[in-house]
Inverse folding.
């Protein structure tokens, strides 16, 4: 399994395809395999790099406080280790928080940002419903079946579940099987809760695409609208009748939107 030392820890990563480098940053508690359905589509044009954030998957899980800034520095260090000076950066959920911070903290290294199903954090953001927030806070410890039933309702739209419940359940089960230890998950969760980029959003000068499902319960779409308004020149795409995992519900369409944006703006 490919690992490399980045920012003082061992990070697991994987690469597919050729072309301009595109880093995919996974969400809370997830490994890089979260992107499994998107990688073959995006690798048609890009050198796609997925990796496990510190505290998740096969990467190290050091017992120290985590922050979104630390995750952004890990991402830059991974680029250094792979000999990549600049790249497209695409983050989903917590990965979208990391991508925003990267766009401010390592601005010269981001050719374009894609901010998927995410939020800017802080008191001015639109918070998830109490049910969705409960799923996030208990995700690391909930029994698998209970976690599965709750997660299906908040990660996917009702329309998608109507015809694809079994498929969604299989995918969520594979996600749950790779949950990190509780202490590592809660350090990631604490980093998300402490994040607030609202005032710094205008500092993102990199071309940015904000993309989400219009029925996202975990990162309500109003956050995407606010981000697109505050990031200079940002583009906004909201998929109707689609939930948090828009890239799973709309795999071909979301990959097409992202690819065309990166062609045009990157």
């Amino acid at each position: 399994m490919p690992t490399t030392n980045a920012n003082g820890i061992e990070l697991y990563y994987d690469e597919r395809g050729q072309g301009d480098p595109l880093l995919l940053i996974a969400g809370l508690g997830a490994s890089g395999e979260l992107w499994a359905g998107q990688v073959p589509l995006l690798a048609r044009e890009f050198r796609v790099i997925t990796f496990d954030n510190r505290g998740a998957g096969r990467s190290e899980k050091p017992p120290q406080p985590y922050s979104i800034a630390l995750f952004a520095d890990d991402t830059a260090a991974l680029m250094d280790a792979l000999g990549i000076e600049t790249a497209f950066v695409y983050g989903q959920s917590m990965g979208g928080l990391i991508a925003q911070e990267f766009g401010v903290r390592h601005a010269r290294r981001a050719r374009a940002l894609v901010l998927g199903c995410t939020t800017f954090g802080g008191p001015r953001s639109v918070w998830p419903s109490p049910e969705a927030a409960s799923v996030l806070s208990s995700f690391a410890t909930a029994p698998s079946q209970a976690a599965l039933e709750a997660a299906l309702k908040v990660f996917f739209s009702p329309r998608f579940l109507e015809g694809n419940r079994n498929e969604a359940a299989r995918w969520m089960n594979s996600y749950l099987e790779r949950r990190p230890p509780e202490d590592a998950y809660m350090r990631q969760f604490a980093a998300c809760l402490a994040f607030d980029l609202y005032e710094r959003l205008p500092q993102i000068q990199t071309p940015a695409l904000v993309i989400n499902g219009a029925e996202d319960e975990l990162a309500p779409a109003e956050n995407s609208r606010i981000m697109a308004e505050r990031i200079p020149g940002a583009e906004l795409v909201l998929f109707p009748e689609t939930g948090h995992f828009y890239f799973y519900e709309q795999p071909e369409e979301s990959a097409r939107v992202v690819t065309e944006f990166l062609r045009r703006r990157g």
Summary: Residues 3-265 form a domain with the Rossmann fold fold (CATH 3.40.50.1820). The chain has one domain: 3-265. The two ends are 31 Å apart (CA to CA).
